[in-house]
Amino acid sequence: MGLMDKVKAQATQLAQKTQEAAQEGKARLDQAQASRRGDALLRQLGALVFAEHTGRGTPDGQAKIDQLINTISTYERENGLNLAQATVPPPGSPGDQAEPGSGAPSGQDSSAQSTSGGPAGPAGSSKDAPGGFPTDQTFFTPSEDSGPGPG
């Protein structure tokens, strides 16, 4: 086999590997986009259910909830997803950041929910950042001459 034949064979292999990598990357991107869209649908559903359970729902709220559940079920089938198995960090974990409208699930006492712990800080606040670090503490103070240079 001549040198040019070896170069051609290697180029063909490289092109094939590149194409496979591109297809794998596209599949991962498509899966990530499908998952994000599913998360958005679940968020909409959660907002509607929350509004209904807190007495702030609209007259057609239950119909919207039913429609959204059907949409989510269809979306799962079409995209091979199982949105009911969404990854949710356990309460109090560093990744647990409660968002507005994410109250306690139905049937749970909302007093059972707690912040990530620790005594109240100097300002009397019990709000701690993930990991139990106080949010009202300044670690580095800006110096007075940290602004623009003399001018």
Question: What does this entry look like structurally?
Answer:
A hairpin with a 3-residue loop joins strand 1 (128-129) and strand 2. The protein has a two-stranded antiparallel sheet with strand order 1-2. The termini are far apart. Helix 1 (3-53) runs antiparallel to helix 2 (61-79). It is built from two helices and two strands. It has helices at residues 3-53, 61-79; strands at 128-129, 133-134. The chain is mostly helical. The radius of gyration is 26 Å and the shape is rod-shaped. 1% of the residues are buried.
Please sum up the structure shown:
The protein has 151 residues and is mainly alpha-helical. 46% of the residues lie in helices and 3% in strands.
Which stretches are low in confidence, meaning pLDDT under 50 for 5 or more residues running? 98-129
Quaternary form? single chain
Number of strands: 2
- Straight-line N-to-C gap: 72 Å
Structural class: mainly alpha
Topology as a string of helices (H) and strands (E) = HHEE
Shape summary = rod-shaped
Helical content stands at 40-55%
| Arithmetic mean pLDDT | 74
